[in-house]
Amino acid sequence: MFERFTKDARAVVLGAVEHAERGGADSVDDGHLLLALLDREASRGSFALAALGAAGRRDAIEEALSGARRRGGLSQADTDALAGLGIDVAAIVSRVEEAHGEGALADGGKSGPRKAGRGRLGRVPFSREGKDVLEKSLRAATARRDRRIGDEHILLALTVRPGFVAEVLADHGVTHASVDRVLGADPAAAAG
């Protein structure tokens, strides 16, 4: 599938791997893909992010992603729902971090040094979430009748995949509908 990616989409994928490696993550996830998209300039995906005002809010987006990772992937909506049941997620995170170190929930409880050479060519492998975004980007390209997968398709995939990344994007005005509108999508293709 990688051969169908444009230069910009390939740069996002490689950038996501770099973000994961720098952060010491065990795998590349959808959050890493979003950070790599925010790094891009002069591409269709970066145009959409800039047009929606998200490019100028990178620090806030990065902080929101970090907070969700720290909560073990719980979105703010999940945290609020649990608070409504009397469960204080912040207190639980604090207790876990007291016992197991800061960020203990951030990597799914797999703290410790990463084993070298886990992925192909010694790279960090993609998580289920990361792979799902790449598969959804193929579907987005197909729905838009595009022959190649661009970084805009990765952005569209991030907006439809349930989870904290889509929630963070939506909180910053980046939804599937808004990205479609900015890119001038065919409404019939957006339904796919």
Automatic annotation (TrEMBL):
<dbReference type="InterPro" id="IPR036628">
    <property type="entry name" value="Clp_N_dom_sf"/>
</dbReference>
<feature type="compositionally biased region" description="Basic residues">
    <location>
        <begin position="112"/>
        <end position="121"/>
    </location>
</feature>
<dbReference type="InterPro" id="IPR004176">
    <property type="entry name" value="Clp_R_N"/>
</dbReference>
<feature type="domain" description="Clp R">
    <location>
        <begin position="2"/>
        <end position="192"/>
    </location>
</feature>
<feature type="region of interest" description="Disordered">
    <location>
        <begin position="102"/>
        <end position="124"/>
    </location>
</feature>
<protein>
    <submittedName>
        <fullName>Peptidase</fullName>
    </submittedName>
</protein>
<keyword id="KW-0677">Repeat</keyword>
